[in-house]
Amino acid sequence: MTVTRSVVPGEWYAVLGDDVVVLLPPAAKARVAGVWELVDAGAGFDEVLDGLISGGLRELSGFVLVSERAGDVKLVIRGAGTAELTAADGPVTISGDADSTWVERNVAGVTALRLRVADGDGAAYTLGSGLVRVSAVAQPAVAPEADTGPITGAAPEPEPEPEPVPIPAPAPIPAPAPIPAPAPIPAPVPIPAPAPKPVARLVLSTGDVVEVDRPVVVGRAPQPRGPGHEEALLVSVPSPNQEISSTHVEIRPGAGPDRGSAVVTDLGSTNGTLLVQPGLRAEDLQPGIAVRLVPGAVIDLGEGVTIQVAAV
Questions:
Q1: Region class of 111: left (phi > 0), else alpha (psi between -120 and 50), else beta
Q2: What's the pLDDT tens digit per position in 286-304?
Q3: Structural domains in the chain?
Q4: Among 103, 125, 172, 308, which lies 20 to 30 A Cα-Cα from 76?
Q5: Cα end-to-end distance, the chain, whole Å
Q6: Sign of CA dihedral 42, 60, 105, 86
Q7: d(CA 3, CA 1)
Q8: Which DSSP letter does residue 34 get?
Q9: Contact criterion met (CB below 8 Å) for 40 and 177
Q10: What is the dihedral of CA 95, 99, 104, 109, to 10 degrees?
């Protein structure tokens, strides 16, 4: 069963799997794709830790690695970061230490945990597995607490209530004449919401043509990622040499300043995604960073599989 978590937006990278959570600072961007591939493939705590430190600890100023199974939590924190756990024996707080390699703890009977690595400036939202930018992660997902306001002092003593004044019983009121039942009113006919308008058309080298009116996830065996992606269109492409990741790239309608255009995001693919846009130099997409697309752009997934972006 996929775990749900509360995520607060921030600058750190969060790799969220069913059993493993990894938090990496912005300076560790180059390690994110490899860690995502391990977690996405179902790697356990020890295997993910080996992958994290394989590139050396000198350039890795901090990270948080957590594994939870049936209430048993394994935790490693290096540098910045604090973990707050609710356990059978009471609350447990664990903080990283910049003067040591890392702090490692095993805690049993954990019912909830919260990881905090920086100050957040956005509203929390719920997420299962995926690759996102965060400042804090809580598991399981919790609703935001209501602000009850500051306590300014003890409540004043209530004043004594006056003695009740007897009220004479009212005179009986005659029963009203019966009101005829209203004629039945037919239920309104629901008007279906208009279908989303496509913002671009994708022409795949496999011959498939897809319109971007919702998230489109492409890979050799794609799965939807993130909240609100249950309606995502999944497009499978061949990858005889397994160079294209199972869930490689996402193209979706843009929001905010990108509204009316399509944006592309690499989902932590193993071998990366190359984007070539008209009039611009080719660029390798950074995992989790959305880039606006213009008509004529070509997205190269490797093994000869390309996606051309056309206007609608």
A1: alpha
A2: 998 999 999 999 999 999 9
A3: 5-139 (no CATH), 201-310 (2.60.200.20)
A4: 125
A5: 39
A6: negative
A7: 6
A8: H
A9: no
A10: -20
Helices (H), 100-225: none
For 213-263, how does the pLDDT look when each residue is reduced to its tens digit (9 = 90+)?
999 999 999 988 765 566 889 999 999 999 999 999 999 999 888 889 999
* Structure-block tokens of residue 161: 């209530």
Pick from 129, 93, 95, 130: which is nearest to 110 by CA? 93
One-letter amino acid for residue 270 of the chain:
T
Query: What are 95's two structure tokens?
Result: 């903080």
What token pair was written down for 217?
């996830």
C-beta atoms surrounding 39 within 10 Å: 24
Asked if residues 74 and 106 have their Cβ atoms less than 8 Å apart, the reply is: yes
CA pair distance 248, 261, nearest whole angstrom: 20
CA dist., res. 250 & res. 219, Å (int): 9
Length of the chain, please? 312
Strand order through the sheet with 283-284:
209-211, 201-204, 305-310, 298-302, 274-276, 283-284
- Separation of alpha carbons 88 and 108, rounded Å: 8
| CA neighbor of 266 nearest in space, from 212, 219, 208 | 219
- Position 108, amino acid: A
Contact 251, 264 (CB under 8 A): yes
pLDDT in tens, 56-90: 778 888 899 999 888 899 999 988 789 999 998 88
